[in-house]
Amino acid sequence: MKEENQIVMAVKGIILHEGKFLIVQRSPHDSGGGTWEFPGGKLDFGEQLESALAREIEEETGLSASVKRILYATSFFTHAHRQVVINTYLCTADRNDVTLSFEHSDHKWVDFADAQNYLPENIKHDFERYQVANMPEFLHM
Asked: Within a domain: residue 1?
């Protein structure tokens, strides 16, 4: 039986607060356990991108983030028949006291130099490809 192709749409938020941005570590029991990423997740059918992201950020971190604008979009395959498309947005938060959901085991507020020690190569590649560090919001970090 032939496996059906699947496209998954997800949103992620680079949340700025006082010159740093938030990264979260996936729980060991979760797919991709131990990797660092930005908060976010899959869209529910009928959701708008920005409202899905605000919901995911609140569920995963307890933060009420303001979604500002899209920074970049990328896609990758998790296996031959499953493609994930991710839109990454700039967000802000007015506080930094994070309450993690079961999906994540740790969090850090980092600058670009610190992020190099945690983020996986594919995210670092996206940062370089889309010149995130050169965007006005990040120039003075």
From this structure: no
Burial class (CB in 10 A: 0-12, 13-18, 19+), 89: buried
Q: Does the residue 71 lie in any domain?
A: yes
Residue 113 within a domain: yes
Exposed / middle / buried, residue 121 (Cβ in 10 Å: 0-12, 13-18, 19+): exposed
Angle at 50 between CA 132 and CA 90, to 5 degrees: 20
Which residue is it, tokens 């899209």?
A: 70
Confidence tier at 138 by pLDDT (50, 70, 90): confident
Query: Measured in whole angstroms, how far is the alpha carbon of residue 111 from the centre of its chain?
Result: 15
Q: Does residue 97 belong to any structural domain of this protein?
A: yes
Prediction pTM value = 0.93
Quick: pLDDT tens for 72-131.
Answer: 999 999 889 999 999 999 999 999 999 999 999 999 999 999 999 999 999 999 999 999
CATH code at 99?
Answer: 3.90.79.10
> How does the average pLDDT of the chain come out, rounded?
95
Q: What range does the domain containing 76 cover?
A: 6-138
Report the SS3 class of residue 90: strand
